[in-house]
Design goal:
globular, eleven-stranded mixed β-sheet, Amidase signature (AS) enzymes, alpha/beta, disordered C terminus
């Protein structure tokens, strides 16, 4: 197998045994980037010299018999809103292109502790919001890769690196994973620390990750989890072990829930038919559950909280002055400015009740089956796509997976979304592994030529 196409698990195992060096792997990824990124534009900052120096240091540690981490020598791409002390963090804005911090974000610290090589910074939409970036979908350069984690999803899909960090405030991990035909994971709120990551919405921001296999997602997630007192969303208690969850057999066959969601009439025919086929195949393992009327209200409340908090966190940033923003951003900022404190507090007050409702709901179900996106990646001119398929679950802080198992009308990827119970992310991975076997959809990686 071509080195750049190795899974993170196999690459780390080969590096640990000495049959592969991190330098060779990183160089293969850099060569892959050089040969493909002109038509994709996944990278905001790529420093080959720094990446190869990190790789050489990891190889030296192994040769000297020092401890090696779970991701030892494995290259990872970082969404350009996480602080890194040795690279600029541009936030998707030309105003901040040369901006550098003095410390690493919490997740960067955890990656370094696991032995990962920080390959570079991937393109984000400006300030991780709705305005498109220049990145293109590796499957069809006329289509968007989704946003706001555009470069991370496109880079993994194109074989630039096996793993990448993104974030999700609406649907910015799950939707790009669906559009780019890779695996995406947004954890339970608070499982990953947000320290050192651009704050756009203190209530809703959550890191997410991308990989080309479910197994690799679990390995990366375990390296990132842990308490951080600097993030008020983090809880100081034991965390789920996702790799163990992925590898463990289900004690009984899982039970799934299916809702006729408020946006079901907007799904493309291929997405609707693909999901219906899965539901039909699972038979009595799926229960069609009456959809609460409040779901439509929660979608509206999410928009209120997101736009209000974005405006109040960032409206005075020099990169968001009127002469530096497009009409999409101007409209969103104007909307955020008009939301009153009373309207905001009312909307935000729904978060706790939504969490409680789903906590009771998952006493009877292992996962919810839902679309990851409305359909295939739309044309670039239409923006980064609609996040509506994710906002319910993001608002509730639930763990979500996007599984690249379906194909759309134009032969482009479609993702199946699984949503699990809060703080039972290991159970969600176990359920996803069971479903992959049941659907005869092995967790295989596919190269993109």
């Amino acid at each position: 197998m071509t080195l750049w196409a190795l899974s993170a698990r196999e690459a780390a195992a080969r590096i640990r045994t000495g049959s592969l060096t991190s330098v060779d792997l990183v160089q293969a990824c850099l060569d892959r980037i050089a040969g493909t990124d002109e038509g994709i534009g996944a990278w905001a900052h790529l420093d080959a010299e720094t990446a190869l120096a990190q790789a050489a240091a990891m190889d030296d540690l192994r040769r000297r018999g020092r401890p090696v981490g779970a991701l030892h020598g494995v290259p990872v791409g970082i969404k350009d809103i996480f602080e890194t002390k040795d690279m600029p963090t541009g936030l998707g804005s030309p105003v901040h292109t040369e901006r550098r911090g003095d410390t690493d974000a919490a997740l960067i610290e955890r990656l370094r502790s696991a032995g990962a090589v920080i390959l570079g910074k991937t393109v984000t939409t400006p300030f991780a919001f709705a305005s498109p970036a220049h990145t293109r979908n590796p499957h069809n350069p006329a289509r968007t890769p989704g946003g706001s984690s555009s470069g991370s999803a496109a880079g993994v899909a194109a074989g630039h690196m096996p793993l990448a960090l993104g974030t999700q405030t609406g649907g910015s991990t799950i939707r790009p994973a669906s559009y780019c035909g890779i695996y995406g994971y947004k954890p339970t709120r608070g499982l990953f620390s947000r320290r050192g990551c651009l704050q756009t919405s203190i209530s809703l921001d959550q890191p997410g990750i991308f990989a080309r296999s479910l197994d690799d997602l679990a390995i990366l997630a375990d390296a990132l989890t842990g308490f951080d007192a600097a993030d008020p969303a983090c809880k100081n208690r034991p965390v789920p072990q996702l790799e163990a969850g992925y590898a463990s057999p289900a004690p009984v066959d899982p039970v799934f829930a299916w809702f006729d969601l408020p946006y079901a009439d907007r799904l493309t025919p291929a997405m609707r038919a693909g999901l219906e086929d899965i539901v039909q195949t699972l038979g009595n393992r799926v229960e069609r559950v009456p959809t609460p009327a409040s779901f439509a209200q929660i979608i509206d409340h999410h928009a209120t909280v997101h736009r209000y908090e974005f405006y109040h966190a960032l409206h005075d940033d020099p990169g968001l002055t009127k002469d530096r923003t497009d009409d999409v951003m101007k409209s969103l900022l104007a909307h955020g400015a008009r939301i009153t404190g009373v309207e905001y507090e009312d909307a935000r007050g729904w978060i706790a009740g939504t969490e409680d409702w789903f906590s009771a709901f998952f006493n009877d179900y292992d996962a919810i089956i839902a679309p990851s996106a409305l359909g295939e990646a739309p044309p670039l001119a239409e923006g980064t796509g609609d996040s509506v398929c994710s906002v319910l679950w993001t608002f509730a802080g639930l763990p979500c997976l996007s599984l690249p198992w379906l194909t759309g009308e134009d032969d482009l990827p479609l993702g199946v979304q699984l949503i699990g119970s809060a703080e039972e992310d290991d159970r969600l991975f176990r359920t996803a592994a069971w479903l992959a076997r049941e659907m005869d959809g092995p967790d295989e990686e596919e190269e993109i030529a």
